[in-house]
Structure formats: structure tokens, C-alpha cells
Amino acid sequence: MPTPISVILPVRNAAATVGEAVRSLGVAGLDDVEIIAIDDGSTDETPAVLDALRREIAALRVLRQPHGGIAAALEAGRTAARGAYIARMDADDIALPYRLARQRRFLDRHPGIGVVSGRVRFGGSRRTAKGYAAYVDWINTLHDPADFAAQRFVESPLAHPAVMFRAECAQRHGGYRDGMFPEDYELWLRWMEAGVQFASIPEEVLIWHDPPQRLSRTHPRYTIDAFYAMKAEYLARWCALHVRDWPRVIVWGAGRTTRKRVQHLQSCGARVRLWVDIDEKKIGHTVDGAPVVGPEDLPPPGQGFIIPFVGSRSARAQIRTWLEGNGYVLERDFIPAA
């Protein structure tokens, strides 16, 4: 028998799109898949649309609750889920026809993987939303557990509505938490810290739309400071376990933006030993009592741990190439944390 799947789909005021999203999952007539739509206090026609969908699609279950936010809705759906595998979906996205079957097959064949994603197709405007489009391009380059582990502190390394995970991961390590942080990224970092392995299938599984009202654009839990404050806690704990010289670290990047990001890590105990930069105007100066040096003045591999805090993806790639070309080993001598 196929492993049963529960799809959790939070909905708030999505009457215009939720029907297409639910139908795109293609579960009509399947008895091994359920869709749990969590109506998070909608004030438009969403409740009526969901009632009509429920009459059309027997696999659809509808939970209704007062508006409590995305994390509460997700956790309500996860708690109610009966499947051994849990897939995510948003009410304004489109699943590609084979998505559930191929992700289920991957988890069936790879018992050591706890979370599987897939490539996503950007459904917004690449002209007006260049940042999101570039982010999609980046997550689509990540495939195996090593990719996800090494890039976890750069940005959230997968599209939340494109994932499927084992229900036992949440049972062992906790589900969605509410707070002033991105609920999905916090979940991934917590599970990775616990040893859960992540992977992605090399096929598109979802069309990821980018509406102006997307929560990541409008809610304070998704601000840059919220990301860095939460990420710094997990990075500091990772360093405490893996970096011999912790709390002493070397930071690549000495500009104002980098220094502001590093403040969150410093609040978690980090002490910057050196700053590294290629700008000759910065080299030779001191920042917070630590000297700024060029790459050629880095201590040799094994004698310091480097954290590149560089936002540009192309610059990060160049830094990694330079470090590895000079004998530094990813996760032993450096880890990116842009």
C-alpha cells in the first residue's frame, strides 16, 4: 500500500485562488491522500469556496479557527494530519501533476531523508521581483543533504510550500513554533540541528507565485533583523559544537551591512578575531578592536574559522572558490552565513 500523505494548506482570504490550488494536487479519487485546509479566520468568500470544494473532493478536510496567524494554522493542520508523510501547499500556488507521487517515492526509497523538496518554478515577475526570482534560482541549485547543511545559514534553503516531510520528524523534534521569526526557516534549522537530513528531487514540483500580499513581504516576523536574530542563535550553537576556537571567529566582510549582521552573532557570544575584506580602503584599519586584513593575510587552514557574511551570491561563490583553492575546507575551516 502507498504511504499515506496529508497535505496541509493554510488559507486566509484566498477565495480567488484556493480552488485552483486544491485541484492542482490531483487527489480526486485517491484514498491514500488527504488535504487539510485550515481556514485561518477568512473574512471573504473562502469558507463558501472550501465548502463547495469539499463536496467536489472527498479527500478534502476543512478546519476552521479564529485568525491566529500562519504558524498556528500550520500547527493545527500538522496535528490533525493522519498521513505518515506531510506535504505543504499554499492557497495561491500550483502543484505540478506528479508532485506528490514523486516526492512520496523519493522518501520511500531514501529512509535516511526526513525532508524532500523539489525545484520550483517562479510564478512572479522577474522584472519587478528580481530578489525573489534570484532566491528561487538559488534554492533550485541545492540537491543533496550536504548542500542543505552547508547553505543553511545563508538563507532558508527551500521553498516551504514545495516540501514533503516525515510526520515523525515533527513528533520527535517539534512542529511549527510561533514567534517573531520566520516559522519555516526556524523549523528547518531546528530539525537540521537535530540531525534531520534534507534533499530535493531534480524536477519541478510547484509553481510558486509571488503576490504583493505575501506574508514574507508584509509581516514583521520576516524582516531582515528577524531572520538574522533567529539565524544567529542556531549558527552560534553550531559553531560551539564544530569550531575549535569558538567563540573566536574570522568574519569575511568588513562593510557596514556585514557588521550589522554580525552584531546578532556577537550577541550570542561570538568574538571577532579578524575582519577580511578586499577593499584596500578598509584593510589596515580596526573594527571593534579587531584588524581588517586582506585574504592573503588569513591564517592558514586549521588555524582559524572563517564566516563569510557576504550578501551577493556571486561574491559568495568567488569567496568559496578562493578558500577551497587555498586549502580551506567547507564546515571545517569556514561556513557561509550571508
CATH class of the largest domain: Alpha Beta
Which fold name fills CATH's third level, the topology of the largest domain? Spore Coat Polysaccharide Biosynthesis Protein SpsA, Chain A
Integer count of domains:
2
- Listing every helix as H and every strand as E from the N terminus to the C terminus, the arrangement reads EHEHEHEEHEHHEHHEHHEHEEEEH
The structural class is alpha/beta
Strand neighbour order, sheet with most strands: 3-2-1-4-7-6-8-5
The largest β sheet comes out as: 8 strands, mixed
Report the uncertain regions.
none
Count of discrete alpha- or pi-helical segments spanning 4 or more residues: 12
Average pLDDT score: 94
Gross morphology is elongated
Strand content is 15-25%
Written overview of the protein:
With 338 residues, this protein is α/β, with parallel strands linked by helices. The protein has two domains: 5-222, Spore Coat Polysaccharide Biosynthesis Protein SpsA, Chain A; 224-325, Rossmann fold, CATH 3.40.50. 36% of the residues lie in helices and 20% in strands. It has twelve helices and 13 strands. The strands form two sheets. It has an eight-stranded mixed sheet, with helices on both faces. Strand 1, helix 1 and strand 2 form a beta-alpha-beta unit. Helix 10 packs across helix 11. The longest helix has 19 residues, at 224-242. The radius of gyration is 22 Å and the shape is elongated. The relative contact order is 0.10. The model has no long low-confidence stretch (mean pLDDT 94).
Name some characteristics of this structure.
36% helix, alpha/beta, 12 helices, 8-stranded mixed sheet, Spore Coat Polysaccharide Biosynthesis Protein SpsA, Chain A, 2 domains, 5-stranded mixed sheet, Rossmann fold, 338 residues
